Amino acid sequence: MSAGVVVAVACGAALLGIAAGYWLPPHGRVPASNRLQGGRRILLPFTGQEISRRSFEAAVRLAKAENAIIMPAFLAQVPMNLPLETALPVQCARGMPLLEAIEQRATSLGVPVDSRVGRGRSARDALRKLLEQEHFDRVIVSADEDPRLGLSYEDLRWMLARVPAEILILRPAPDDTRRISTEAVKGHF
Amino acid sequence: MAAPDQSRGRLKVFIGMAAGVGKTYRMLLEGHAEVEAGRDVAVGLLETHGRADTARVAEGLPMIPRRRVRYREAVLEEMDLPAIFSRAPELCLIDELAHTNAPGTEHAKRYEDVEAVLAAGIDVLSTLNVQHLESLNDHITELSGIRVRETIPDAILGRADEVVLIDLTPEALLERLRAGKVYPTERIDAALNNFFKIENLSALREVALRQVAEEVGAKRLTTELVGSREESLAAAAPQAVGERLLALVEPYPGAQRLVRRAWRSAQRLGAGLDLLWVRAPGKELSEDQQRSLVALRQLASVLGARMIEEESDDIAATIVEVAQRRGTTYILIGGSRPARGLARLRVPLPQRLMQRLPGVDVRIVADRAQRPNGSSLEGL
Q: Which of A35, A19, A13, A7 is nearest to B340 (CA)?
């Protein structure tokens, strides 16, 4: 085969490839920032407008060490008088900015993030439903001084007994009041 | 589109944020005006709730008596639908569209009675509180903490030929309530302590105003679809007050950020939010994508957004079709990777959408976490 034919075939193949890039629909072209690198999944559930900085940092350290994904999850609670599938705009107005703040912070630290929203009659019920839907390798929660800020001690006990994942419960030092709150969101949100 | 049925009666609904704003009063005033114009008017059902002003304004209007319906040990008074058909006025005034009828009557709900009256060629004036609309019921319950049991499908209001908002400031309504113009004296305190709180009324008023604005928008869109000269004039009219956002998503983690941003924008605008995923025909999803899709659907549901999934190879055409169908005023798109090869010659999707959807804003949502020199989170 002459060199000319080889060149012609190579050029033809290149042109076909370029043309395919033009004509084929852009479905499935995933921006690099959207691809998840990690295999292990670390769940970081929360219920309020802020989480302990320590539990977030622990999640980041572990995610980096294990090449894992952080999965912050806002647990919304549906009042008993409403259908379980109801929209919860008032709670979401509190939870979404924190989800955004955690995601921005983790992404800027080079850790992939895939957020979730759980919904149930209580925080525990929401967490249980989330755990039924998906597998998580590890769950990181903060044992706050004030259980109203997060999951209660009962919830933590339940997690240790029932959740099929490694549970990491962090109790911040008394003087460690650093938290990640909704105020951490960059720009307009 | 099918031409409107000329033999069907016309429905005009007076909608308000709560009892006592003056819906029934206004309906009766219009009834008098129609009588003066020479039309045959009858009151099919009137609920005065003991309000003297309302009873006074009803004087002089022909009234079709209620019928008595026996239910278990009780005797209930209900609208007499057969009597309305026998009397066959040109215009019938039927109060409280969301009312549930006593068992044993022709229909379970009064709006079904109204449908029958309209089908008989009789025009109807009716009244409705906004919290009785099915789609708003949960939202209003969450705002006010009070669930209203009697609801009507939104389509009933959608089919109304006219929707008139009877508006009153919350302060003015509370003043009316305290003056005994809404409920009898013995019920005033209970009302003030429960439903009639300024924050409830403010939220309900906002919902009512938005609902009517959306009705106007929907009617305008319907008119445009028909294609006559009037429709052209309507198309040239100023845009409707109601806004609707459409966020384009794919089952990837980054889509959630886009959805959250779109939702916040929708909240600020008081707008509805739709999410659209255009799926490639026949394409299988990976396990990660399937999980992301479930998460997206869950997020949409919690936020009260509508998730639309379409299968097509032509993304732009599908977006245009959905945007026109849903009355979209803003489209939000996430950043895409830079084009390569001949794809650089293709007109980018945002520009194609702007060309094909004049008047619709297209916004590309940035990834704030990747912004250089952004505000620091340290020290929080």
A: A19
Residue that wins the pLDDT comparison between B71 and A62: A62
| Cβ-based contacts of A107 with chain B (< 8 Å) | 367, 369-370
Instruction: Tell me which residue in A17, A22, A31 faces B335 most closely, judged by beta carbons.
Output: A31
Task: Tell me, yes or no, if A19 comes closer than 8 A to chain B by beta carbon.
Answer: yes
Q: What is the DSSP string of A7-21?
A: HHHHHHHHHHHHHHH
The sign of the dihedral angle between the CA atoms of A142, A147, A150, A154 is positive
Q: What is the pLDDT of residues A141-171, one digit of tens each?
A: 877 655 555 677 788 888 898 888 999 988 7
Tell me which residues of chain A, numbers 85 to 124, contact chain B at a CB-CB cutoff of 8 Å: 85-90, 92-93, 96, 99-101, 103-108, 112-119
Asked whether the beta carbons of residue B302 and residue A114 sit closer than 8 angstroms, the reply is no
Where do runs of H (alpha helix) occur along chain A? 3-23, 53-66, 89-108, 123-133, 153-162
Give Cβ neighbours of residue B283 (< 8 Å, ≥ 6 apart).
Answer: A27, A28
User: Residue A45: CA atoms inside 13 Å, Cβ hemisphere, count?
Assistant: 29
Q: Are A21 and B342 in contact (CB under 8 A)?
A: yes
B351/A contact by beta carbon, under 8 A: no
Is residue A180 within a helix (H) or strand (E), and if so which, with residue range?
Answer: strand A179-181
- Burial (CB < 10 A; 0-12, 13-18, 19+), residue A74, is buried
Q: Do B336 and A29 touch (CB under 8 A)?
A: yes
Query: Cα–Cα distance between B315 and B334 in angstroms, integer?
Result: 14
User: What pLDDT, on the 0 to 100 scale, is given for residue A182?
Assistant: 66
Q: What is the pTM of this model?
A: 0.53
| Mutate which: A22, A54, A77, vs B, most B CBs within 10 A | A22
Chain A residues close to B134, C-beta within 8 Å: none
B282 vs A: CB within 8 A: no
- Residue to substitute from A11, A15, A18, A27, interface B, most B β-carbons within 10 A: A27
Question: What is the overall mean pLDDT for chain A?
Answer: 79
Task: Name the stretches of chain B with pLDDT < 50.
Answer: 1-3, 220-241, 373-380
Give the count of alpha carbons within 13 A of A26, CB side only. 19
